Amino acid sequence: MRNLLALRQIAQRTISTASRRQFENKVPEKQKLFQEDNGIPVHLKGGVADALLCRATMMLTVGGTAYAIYQLAMASFPKKQD
């Protein structure tokens, strides 16, 4: 019975719509940052994390394309059977 009451309390806490923490609204600051005309592309204005994500995406894209071309070349020239 005690477990059932504990489960009920946990369920009420997680489903509750009232927020216990009040977060600071940072939207105006982010809007200023992203609308600033400083010559940086918008996908890199978030800082170092954005630059790392962009480079990782580029590397995965180039690597995946190279691998796909390699596999197509291997499939188009089958090995001879002896």
Keywords, please?
flat, 63% helix, oxidoreductase, Cyt_c_oxidase_su7a_sf, single chain, 82 residues, mainly alpha, mitochondrion
Task: Tell me what the structure shows.
With 82 residues, the protein is mostly helical. It has a domain of 33 residues. It is built from three helices and no strands. The longest helix is centred in the last third of the chain and has 29 residues. The model has no long low-confidence stretch (mean pLDDT 87).
Q: What value does the Rg take, in angstroms?
A: 26 Å
The proportion of strand residues reads: under 5%
Q: Supply the helix-strand structural class.
A: mainly alpha
Uncertain regions spanning at least 5 consecutive residues: none
Q: Calculate the mean pLDDT score and round it.
A: 87
Sum this structure up briefly.
It is found in: Mitochondrion inner membrane. By secondary structure, this protein is an all-alpha fold. It has a domain at 44-76.
Chart the SSEs and their pairings.
Layout: H1 2-15, H2 27-35, H3 48-76
